[in-house]
Amino acid sequence: MGNTNSSAIQSCLESAVGARNLATSDSVAYQLAHVKPYNLDIPVAPAAVVYPSKAEEVAAVVKCAVDNNLKVQPRCGGHSYANYGIGGTDNAIVVDLKHFQQFSMDKTTWQATIGGGTLLGDVTKRLHENGNRAMAHGTCPQVGIGGHATIGGLGPSSRMWGAALDHVEEVEVVLANSTIVRASETQNSDVFWALKGAGASFGIITEFKVRTEAEPGETVLYSYTIDAGNAASKATAFKQWQALIADPDLSRKFATQFIMTELGVVITGTYFGPQDEFETLNISSRLPPKSESVIVLDDWLGVVSHWGEDIALELVGGVQSHFYAKSVAYTKDDLLSNDTIDTLFEYMDTVDKGTPVWFLIWDLEGGKTNDYAPDATAYGHRNALFYHQAYAVNLFGAVTEKNRNFLTGLNKVVTDGLGHDLGAYAGYVDPALGDDGPSRYWGDNLPRLQQVKKVVDPGNVFSNPQSVKVV
């Protein structure tokens, strides 16, 4: 920060948060200790990383950025697939919320107050310790609630309880004009609507108030390793799994994933109920030959910990790496035909992936997440029955063209088979979608998001390469 402008912004930020809570390119180990890019394939150099401790300091940082014509992005867990939490491009001000760890529980309403910098592992632990409560969220404990509960927040319990953002009832948020406001369905309702699905485009949430649920009691964790050695047998396994999840009467207590890796096929998931109840679903008989593992737990922290041990999650969960990812949102009308499934699994068996470290996860959603109207929140996929998320990880350097072509080709087989494009989950951002990204992420809600953006952030202060923009 050697020129006049950088000196001005540094002075302003020091006044806002203090010198100890400010890091710049002049700081020791700036990239390693402060920038911490999650995807090593996308280099980003922020103008500064700040560590405020209260909402007033966040507001002062936002004013510094506006006065110096810089963009701002909040960071909680820092797990953006394209490093959007550090701006996505150079020269943003990163507001790291790690100090926002406040927590309280109203044991009359069972509404929890959670600091905007809390990681999901701590959310689980604090809810448990304050009345054996829980909420829907994903399986990676290092992910932060700040991004997770403002972009969707899908997890095994979402079929029962909805997405993480569906638990959010009120927030404290710093807006682009440096004001600190409360937002809910009754106050600043347009902002609240936008934050529940596209939060990073509209403000910095310093505090959440969320509804909670009683922890489930006995829970069944199952894993079926499928005996499928060639493309045809893998395709058969997927056909049977797809028929299972397409059952409109399938219990909302049942969560499931179909996972492919270099090692083969695993169908895994959770049933939020006792084992005898799970067995009445006859899940095992509806799937191909397999090796079965069924664990029954009545310890909720143990259940959540078990989710975090997933092999695919361990590859990208809390580890910085070079990787590329793509996603697709399927509705109940987007079930793959037998021919398309055969083509897809033949492609998977024969394509040169460029890496042995890849995985493809189909993840059942639906249930409670589908109960909300498409425009009830900014979240763009209320009609999604299931998603796929595909990853290619390069352990030895930059992602290659082969890695990218592998995933692009995989998605093309799906969309060609269905005859139309599909949405993408904003939690798995894909920079290759370019300007088409926002419409894929938010669908028909994008025009309203743009209208709200024009009112509350006309200068695009909260901005990354695929954020909601004023048009």
From TrEMBL:
Belongs to the oxygen-dependent FAD-linked oxidoreductase family. It comes from Massarina eburnea CBS 473.64. This is FAD-binding domain-containing protein. It comes from the Eukaryota. InterPro entries: BBE (IPR012951), FAD-bd_PCMH (IPR016166), FAD-bd_PCMH-like_sf (IPR036318), FAD-bd_PCMH_sub2 (IPR016169), FAD-linked_Oxidoreductase (IPR050416), Oxid_FAD_bind_N (IPR006094). The keyword Oxidoreductase applies. GO terms for molecular function: FAD binding; oxidoreductase activity. Keywords: FAD, Flavoprotein, Oxidoreductase. Residues 42-215 form the FAD-binding PCMH-type domain.
